[in-house]
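Q: Given only this backbone (285 positions), what sequence would you predict?
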């Protein structure tokens, strides 16, 4: 990974930070895509100190905002001409229905549309890179969703934090499927993963009950650096280039739910995402 350009979203804490650190230790030039300047700069300094790699940059972006992502991509192009690996990692679970800056239900707006739009505006740079990899952090939680209610995608009728989170992670799988279908012929390698049940700040924006549950079980959870191992593997391992459009756990291909394997639904979600984004052609900003 020496001198390879890697962009990691949500890199100021948890799995994202551990992923960025591991790739920095391999000699990559890592850009931390973070919402908070204070937390992002603190992470940047920690990663430099721990890795001995000075080629760590911080760029600000709110992954729940279309305008912010679009502006980020414009500023990114002023400094970088390509991306070798894009790691879409930022996300969260929310205890009540709130709306994003784009007036989307926040869980789907951040966890899915953040990935979708981030990749849309940077796709040409990824395809200009040597490695051409997109890594999407999904979750075993995609199996929470047994049936999609197309009239309740954004909790228009009812809201459940676990369902909305599971739906967003299912959409991450579909996004990976569609990227592979549409861009494999151009050399793109796109895979998604379950990082494990990881001891991070995840859950702090969930309901009070869920936060207490996480706190009680925290000592049994996987450390963030262990949870990042599959992301790092898919981003950097030479042997990972043999896989495309797959779902991983513990650095190995894993089984998807039956619904997640439905290619017709994946295509329908892709079209819905284009509609939500207000774009007609993906990857052509």
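A: Predicted residues:
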């Amino acid at each position: 990974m020496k001198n390879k350009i890697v962009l990691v979203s949500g890199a100021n804490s948890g799995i994202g930070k551990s992923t960025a650190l591991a790739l920095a230790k391999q000699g990559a030039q890592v850009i931390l895509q973070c919402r908070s300047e204070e937390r992002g700069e603190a992470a940047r300094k920690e990663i430099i100190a721990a890795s001995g790699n000075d080629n760590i940059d911080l760029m600000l972006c709110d992954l729940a905002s279309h305008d912010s992502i679009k502006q980020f991509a414009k500023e990114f192009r002023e400094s970088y001409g390509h991306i070798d690996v894009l790691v879409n990692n930022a996300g969260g679970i929310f205890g009540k229905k709130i709306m994003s800056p784009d007036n989307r239900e926040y869980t789907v707006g951040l966890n899915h549309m953040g990935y979708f739009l981030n990749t849309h505006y940077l796709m040409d740079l990824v395809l200009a890179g040597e490695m051409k990899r997109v890594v999407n952090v999904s979750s075993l939680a995609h199996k929470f969703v047994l049936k999609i209610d197309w009239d309740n995608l954004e909790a228009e009728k009812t809201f459940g934090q676990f369902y909305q989170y599971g739906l967003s992670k299912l959409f991450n799988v579909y996004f990976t499927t569609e990227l592979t279908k549409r861009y494999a012929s151009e050399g793109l390698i796109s895979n998604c993963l379950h990082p494990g049940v990881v001891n991070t700040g995840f859950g702090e924006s969930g309901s009070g009950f869920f936060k207490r549950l996480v706190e009680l079980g925290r000592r049994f959870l996987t450390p963030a650096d262990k949870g990042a191992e599959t992301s790092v593997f898919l981003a950097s391992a030479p042997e990972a280039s043999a896989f495309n459009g797959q779902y991983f756990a513990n650095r190995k291909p894993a089984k998807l739910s039956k619904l997640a394997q439905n290619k017709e639904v994946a295509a329908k979600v892709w079209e819905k995402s284009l509609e939500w984004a207000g774009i007609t052609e993906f990857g052509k900003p």
